Amino acid sequence: MCLAIPVQxxxxxxxxxxxxxxxxxxxxxxxxLVDGVRVGDYVIVHVGYALQKLDPAEAERTLLLFxxxxxxxx
Amino acid sequence: xxxxGGHTHTIFxxxxxxxxxxxxxxxxxxxxxxxxxxxxxxxxxxELAAGRGAVVCAYGDCLRIPASGGASLLKAKxxxxxxxxxxxxxxxxxxxxxxxxxxxxxxxxxxxxxxxATAVAILDAETLGLRNFxxxxxxxxxxxxxxxxLESRQVRDLGTVPIDGFIGPAHVSTVIGTRxxxxxxxxxxxxxxxxxxxxxxxxxxxRRLLKQINEGRCEVExxxxxxxxxxxxxxxxxxxxEVFELRRSFEWRGLGEVPYSALRIKARYAAFDAERRxxxxxxxxxxxxxxxxxxILRGMKRPVDCPLFATACTPESAxxxxxxxxxxxxxxxxxYGRHRDVAESPR
Lengths: 74, 347
What we know:
The complex is a heterodimer of chains A (74) and B (347). With 74 residues, chain A is of the alpha+beta class.
């Protein structure tokens, strides 16, 4: 129910709407809950609304942390 | 405890519980808004469509929730009530615009992740000047539920399990931020780690909780930094604060009455409040006697401890809401783990 999906914004539309893409599946969602979203940004979408922008730098940092854990325990 | 049903699902789907040492046990919390919705509120929603002739728009996972007398929104739909599944609250507004001569009610369910979408729908309906659109509001709040689990005498009387730390919900936290958890991490001295939904996110959160416990710390940590900040989404929070206010009390399935745990629509937006427009009267309904959803939601019992689990109660024909919702503990157990510990289950 509260699950949301990270997707990439591929086109901005009128009325604070946008088209997002997840592995080739495109959907129209509302940007009314977020500010400053641009084409190419990743957002988390839930029940038709973008809730938050994903921070690629933080995502990178988390991935590096996972790799380090894997190295240490592997 | 992992509060959020989505985390329960991740734990089961990826077999994470099997990777943990025997002295670390995950308790599955009540963070599934479908699971904690009381039967009486579903009865109200069905009545709006079947009895009052309204078009009721609902999220997909609400349609099969078992209500009184074996009813459900889906069954009422099959019997002719105008009940429509929607992906978004915006779809409900669109439906109201398309059917100006019908009353359209949006059955709003969900934690803080979902509430902003309802706020936008109401504000849009006002901008559009819609007179036939109302919302039946059942939005609930995460920190109050966690606090209730930790302190309520009623819950203690019903039985609860000592919890050493919490994995905090992922997407609720993108909206509310990590700040709300600071109060009760300090007050109840329990560590909280906000985690994403990937299996490695959850494992890292468990690792961080264990580290805190071993070091005697009780802080709020954010593992889900790619989407969660301390302040959260303040625009969404503002919109919610504009439209909604706290209910003094709200019944949660399995937890009883929980103070300041749910939202209702402010008087300013009364024209969009289905409870006012239709004079909805809530009647509490007890659970099926054999159903252990209440104990499961509080972490007192596991799904395999329920006599109905995987016998009378399955995802296809669910008796309790923990099985109906894909994020319910019972649904997760059934789909991914029901044969896992057959040898160990206490029967």
